Amino acid sequence: MKYTGSCHCEAVKFEFETDEIKEALQCNCSICIRKNAIMSKQSFAPNEFKLLSGKENLKTYHWGDHDVNHHFCNQCGIYPFHDTTYEPGKFRINLGCVKNVDSRNLNIIHFDGKNEL
Ligand SMILES: [Zn+2]
Protein backbone atom coordinates (compact mmCIF):
# COMPACT_ATOMS: atom_id res chain seq x y z
CA MET A 1 0.00 0.00 0.00
CA LYS A 2 1.07 3.55 -0.58
CA TYR A 3 0.79 5.89 2.40
CA THR A 4 1.24 9.65 2.50
CA GLY A 5 2.05 11.82 5.48
CA SER A 6 3.03 15.29 6.56
CA CYS A 7 4.00 17.45 9.50
CA HIS A 8 1.22 19.64 10.94
CA CYS A 9 1.78 22.71 8.76
CA GLU A 10 2.30 20.46 5.71
CA ALA A 11 5.63 22.01 4.79
CA VAL A 12 7.10 18.52 5.11
CA LYS A 13 5.34 15.89 3.00
CA PHE A 14 6.35 12.32 2.31
CA GLU A 15 5.10 9.00 1.00
CA PHE A 16 6.11 5.40 1.55
CA GLU A 17 5.09 1.92 0.53
CA THR A 18 4.46 -1.02 2.81
CA ASP A 19 1.97 -3.74 3.66
CA GLU A 20 -1.09 -2.51 5.53
CA ILE A 21 0.00 -1.01 8.85
CA LYS A 22 -1.49 -2.95 11.78
CA GLU A 23 1.21 -2.66 14.39
CA ALA A 24 3.31 0.14 15.79
CA LEU A 25 6.07 0.79 18.25
CA GLN A 26 6.18 2.95 21.33
CA CYS A 27 9.41 3.53 23.20
CA ASN A 28 9.85 4.86 26.72
CA CYS A 29 13.31 6.43 26.41
CA SER A 30 13.74 10.01 27.59
CA ILE A 31 12.97 11.56 24.20
CA CYS A 32 10.17 9.23 23.03
CA ILE A 33 8.30 9.59 26.32
CA ARG A 34 8.27 13.35 25.79
CA LYS A 35 7.20 13.11 22.15
CA ASN A 36 4.66 10.43 23.01
CA ALA A 37 4.89 9.38 19.37
CA ILE A 38 3.59 6.13 17.95
CA MET A 39 6.19 4.97 15.47
CA SER A 40 6.29 2.54 12.57
CA LYS A 41 7.46 -0.90 13.61
CA GLN A 42 10.00 -1.00 10.82
CA SER A 43 12.33 1.48 9.21
CA PHE A 44 11.81 2.11 5.52
CA ALA A 45 14.62 1.80 3.01
CA PRO A 46 15.41 4.69 0.66
CA ASN A 47 13.59 2.88 -2.19
CA GLU A 48 10.39 2.61 -0.07
CA PHE A 49 10.36 6.18 1.25
CA LYS A 50 10.17 9.46 -0.62
CA LEU A 51 10.37 12.98 0.78
CA LEU A 52 7.99 15.01 -1.41
CA SER A 53 8.60 18.46 0.04
CA GLY A 54 10.09 20.33 2.96
CA LYS A 55 13.72 19.31 2.84
CA GLU A 56 14.62 22.94 3.65
CA ASN A 57 12.22 22.93 6.64
CA LEU A 58 13.72 19.92 8.37
CA LYS A 59 15.97 20.50 11.33
CA THR A 60 17.75 17.74 13.19
CA TYR A 61 18.06 17.23 16.91
CA HIS A 62 20.78 15.08 18.43
CA TRP A 63 21.28 13.97 22.00
CA GLY A 64 23.25 11.38 23.91
CA ASP A 65 25.61 9.50 21.66
CA HIS A 66 24.24 11.21 18.51
CA ASP A 67 23.30 7.99 16.73
CA VAL A 68 19.71 9.05 15.91
CA ASN A 69 18.80 11.98 13.66
CA HIS A 70 15.55 13.31 15.14
CA HIS A 71 14.13 15.34 12.27
CA PHE A 72 11.52 18.00 12.94
CA CYS A 73 9.79 20.78 11.02
CA ASN A 74 11.17 24.25 11.75
CA GLN A 75 7.71 25.82 11.34
CA CYS A 76 5.36 23.61 13.35
CA GLY A 77 7.84 21.59 15.43
CA ILE A 78 6.32 18.25 14.55
CA TYR A 79 8.64 15.26 14.31
CA PRO A 80 7.58 13.18 11.28
CA PHE A 81 10.44 10.66 11.17
CA HIS A 82 13.98 9.84 12.20
CA ASP A 83 16.88 7.92 10.78
CA THR A 84 20.20 6.90 12.24
CA THR A 85 23.77 7.89 11.57
CA TYR A 86 24.61 4.24 10.81
CA GLU A 87 21.67 3.84 8.38
CA PRO A 88 21.04 7.33 6.95
CA GLY A 89 17.97 7.55 4.71
CA LYS A 90 16.30 4.60 6.43
CA PHE A 91 13.38 6.28 8.16
CA ARG A 92 11.19 5.18 11.03
CA ILE A 93 7.95 7.11 10.72
CA ASN A 94 5.71 8.88 13.23
CA LEU A 95 2.38 7.23 12.37
CA GLY A 96 0.44 10.16 13.80
CA CYS A 97 1.65 12.07 10.72
CA VAL A 98 0.32 9.47 8.27
CA LYS A 99 -3.01 9.84 6.48
CA ASN A 100 -5.60 7.09 6.90
CA VAL A 101 -3.76 5.47 9.80
CA ASP A 102 -5.53 5.48 13.16
CA SER A 103 -2.31 5.35 15.12
CA ARG A 104 -3.91 5.16 18.58
CA ASN A 105 -5.85 2.05 17.62
CA LEU A 106 -2.98 -0.01 16.24
CA ASN A 107 -1.55 -2.98 18.06
CA ILE A 108 1.21 -1.25 20.03
CA ILE A 109 4.48 -3.00 20.75
CA HIS A 110 6.30 -1.45 23.69
CA PHE A 111 10.03 -1.03 23.43
CA ASP A 112 11.90 -0.52 26.68
CA GLY A 113 14.33 2.08 25.37
CA LYS A 114 14.69 3.54 28.85
CA ASN A 115 16.61 0.46 29.96
CA GLU A 116 17.91 -0.93 26.69
CA LEU A 117 19.44 2.14 25.05
ZN1 LIG B 1 5.53 21.71 9.74
Could you give the count of β-strands?
10
Major sheet details: 4 strands, antiparallel
Overall average residue pLDDT: 95
- How many domains is the backbone divided into? 1
Structural write-up:
By secondary structure, the chain is mainly beta. Helix content is 7%, strand content 37%. The protein has one domain (2-116): Metal Binding Protein, Guanine Nucleotide Exchange Factor, Chain A, CATH 2.170.150.70. The protein is built from two helices and ten strands, in the order βββαβββββββα. It has a four-stranded antiparallel β-sheet, with no helix packed on it. The chain binds zinc ion. Zinc ion binds at residues 7-9, 11-12, 73, 75-76, 78. Residues 7-9, 11-12, 73, 75-76, 78 line the site of zinc ion.
Write the layout of secondary structure elements.
Elements (H helix, E strand, L loop, with lengths): L1 E5 L6 E5 L5 E5 L4 H4 L3 E2 L8 E5 L4 E4 L6 E6 L7 E4 L7 E2 L13 E5 L1 H4 L1
Parallel strand pairs: 3-10
Antiparallel strand pairs: 1-2, 2-5, 3-4, 6-7, 7-8, 8-9
Bound molecules: zinc ion (ZN).
The site of zinc ion (ZN) has 9 residues, from loops.
